[in-house]
Specification:
The complex is a heterodimer.
Chain A: H1 2-26, H2 32-43, H3 61-72, H4 81-85, H5 90-102
Helix pairs in contact in A: 1-5, 2-5, 3-5
Chain B: H1 13-26, E1 30-34, H2 38-50, E2 55-60, E3 65-66, H3 71-76, E4 85-86, H4 89-93, E5 97-100, E6 103-107, E7 112-115, E8 125-128, E9 132-134, H5 158-169, E10 175-179, H6 190-205, E11 210-214, H7 223-233, E12 238-241, E13 249-253, E14 258-261, E15 264-267, E16 270-273, E17 277-279, H8 281-285, E18 295-296, E19 310-312, E20 317-318, H9 326-344, E21 355-363, E22 366-377, E23 381-384, E24 390-391, H10 401-421
Helix pairs in contact in B: 2-9, 2-10
The structure holds flavin-adenine dinucleotide (FAD).
């Protein structure tokens, strides 16, 4: 049982991503995967920035959601992320964070 | 064995036309990409990333890519030519077949591309990202030969080096004329970044020099930010003449180094003519353009609305509110790659995610930006998301936005380069 529990989270993440896809299509919006690809021009391929733009925190859903929501509400001072984050609904931010969390 | 299939067929048209579709269908798909610039290289890499089994052939006339982004910094002396030159080697390592050469034609019926050496790579889907051609005839008296006296430097490379040499040779107290074209053209904020970078160079090295901007337009991107910065950093050096005030250049005389416009006949010590532009030649021959000189596409997929199985991304495409930028080309190429794979698999195309970001340097330590996250629909096309995106703050705070953005502009360059060429 314990061993199984350890395996569950990644599967759950994968499941969430898979099940999220049809819903995203139904709303006719881009998937988390598609949205995250566009972050890479600034944050580097797969979020691995060569600096000084910060690397994207992969595997940390809560952190990414919190930062994006703080940028969006101008709670966190920023040069550009506040303008970027305002382009996404809270649901889209969750989808973005889900996808980033699925990256190793 | 399936893995030994060849999408690349040298030989006669007849052989290629007969053999190509059969071979191609045996594979999970063969995609030819024309152009290894921002759009083409991103499309090729992204196709391979999403489906390692797809066969990708990338056709490029140049041995390496000299990027326009940061070429203005070369003109200002804070960047070097090697610093803006990108190798295609990492694309090869990613399993992409690079074919060095000129694509001289497209045969949509046979689904093959004609190369200058006579070979005809076949495709199931074709992605075209040829960038721009300069319309020299758009300015009376201007020509490819005239560009040796009055460089455009709007395709980075030898022209960038030439313009830099001229600026270096110019005596202190000289006049540098820049003449930007009407919309649409590659990199709408580019001419004004160029003015800024050259002004930075003059300020440090030739402080009595002047810059005269003779513009075909009445407004330009980030205008308020640029003009405030010019006033603060280079007081009295830059004069911008709007089209409505006679700025639109009517003709040039390269021998006399003069430019004629409603504002009078102006003589420059160094003259930079940025002529009107159109999509790269290959798409015209293939009938992919409208009278505008650019390629209409389905905004959801970047599929040409003129020919089946062909996708157009980057500067060559008509992409709604997206400016012609390397950043736009990168995002469009990813959307097209996903659409190509969906179409090969017989699935509906996924919704595209599109953004643009244009950083501009005013001085090496002073950066500004404009960005947009787009909404895309079949009916309205590509439109900016309301209440998002936009310009850098007008009044910088304790954060030190201008200096940070100059550093982030360099970070963007490194990261988009890695994302595009590996
Ligand atoms: C001065 C300046 C500054 C700029 N700064 C920025 C910036 O800061 N940020 C930004 O996002 N954008 C910037 N841009 C814009 C950017 O350079 C272009 O928008 C971008 O290059 C477009 O990508 P593309 O793939 O459409 O074309 P390109 O990058 O030009 O790629 C096209 C490629 O196709 C090849 N090709 C064309 N036809 C053929 C053929 N028939 N056969 C074989 N090969 C062919 C060409 O050799 C070329 O390598 C700037 C532009 C300029 C001029």
């Amino acid at each position: 049982m314990r061993a199984l529990r350890v395996i569950v989270p990644p599967l759950a993440v994968l499941g969430a991503t898979l099940f999220a896809a049809p819903a995203a299509l139904a709303q006719d919006g881009p998937s988390g995967q598609a949205m995250v690809q566009t972050c890479y021009v600034c944050h580097g391929p797969d979020g691995r920035s060569a600096g000084p733009v910060p690397a994207l925190m992969r595997g940390q859903k809560e952190f990414v959601v919190r930062q994006m929501l703080d940028f969006k509400a101008d709670r966190r001072p920023a040069t550009i992320m506040n303008r970027v984050a305002k382009g996404y609904s809270d649901e889209q931010i969750a989808a973005i964070a889900d996808y980033l969390a699925s990256l190793k | 064995m399936i893995t030994t299939r060849r999408a690349f067929i040298a030989g006669t048209a007849a052989t290629a036309a007969l053999a190509a579709p059969m071979l191609a269908r045996a594979a999970s798909g063969a995609v030819v990409v024309i152009g290894a610039g921002f759009g083409g290289a991103t499309a090729a890499r992204h196709l391979k990333k999403l489906d390692p089994n797809v066969e990708v052939v990338l056709v490029e006339r140049e041995a390496s890519i000299v990027t326009c982004p940061f070429s203005n910094a070369v003109l200002g002396g804070s960047e070097t030519m090697p610093g803006i030159t990108r190798s295609l080697d990492a694309l090869k390592s990613a399993g992409i077949r690079i074919v060095r050469g000129e694509a001289s034609g497209i045969d949509p019926q046979a689904r093959s591309v004609r190369l200058a050496d006579g070979s005809r790579p076949a495709y199931d889907r074709l992605v075209v990202s040829p960038g721009i051609d300069l319309n020299f005839a758009g300015v009376r008296g201007y020509s490819e030969a005239a560009a040796e006296r009055m460089p455009h430097a709007w395709k980075a490379g030898a022209q960038t080096v030439l313009l830099r040499r001229q600026l270096e040779a110019m005596p202190d107290g000289g006049t540098f004329i820049v003449a930007p074209p009407a919309n649409p053209f590659r990199c709408p904020p580019g001419p004004y970044e160029r003015v800024s970078m050259v002004a930075s160079y003059f300020k440090a090295n030739k402080p009595r020099s002047k810059i005269l901007v003779l513009d075909a337009k009445d407004a330009f991107p980030k205008q308020g930010l640029f003009q405030a910065a010019w006033q603060a950093e280079f007081p009295g050096m830059i004069t911008w003449v709007a089209g409505k005030d006679g700025g639109k250049v009517e003709s040039v005389d390269p021998a006399a180094m003069t430019v004629k416009c409603g504002f009078g006949t102006q003589k420059g010590d160094v003259v930079n003519i940025i002529p009107p532009q159109r999509a790269g030649a290959i798409v015209h021959a293939a009938g992919l353009t409208t009278d505008s000189g650019w390629c209409p596409v389905d905004p959801m997929t970047f599929a040409s609305t003129r020919a089946a199985n062909i996708y157009v991304v980057g500067d060559a495409s008509i992409a709604g509110a997206m400016p012609k930028s390397g950043s736009s080309a990168n995002a469009q190429a990813k959307a097209a790659a996903a659409a190509v794979l969906a179409s090969l698999a017989g699935r509906p195309a996924p919704s595209p995610a599109l953004i643009n970001i244009c950083y501009s340097l005013v001085t090496p330590d002073y950066g500004i930006s404009v960005t947009d996250v787009y909404q895309v629909s079949k009916g309205k096309g590509i439109t900016p998301t309301p209440n998002a995106g936009g310009l850098s703050v007008r009044a910088p705070t304790d954060l030190g936005e201008r200096k940070l953005e100059a550093a982030y502009a360099r970070g963007w360059y490194k990261n988009i380069s890695a994302d595009t060429w590996g």
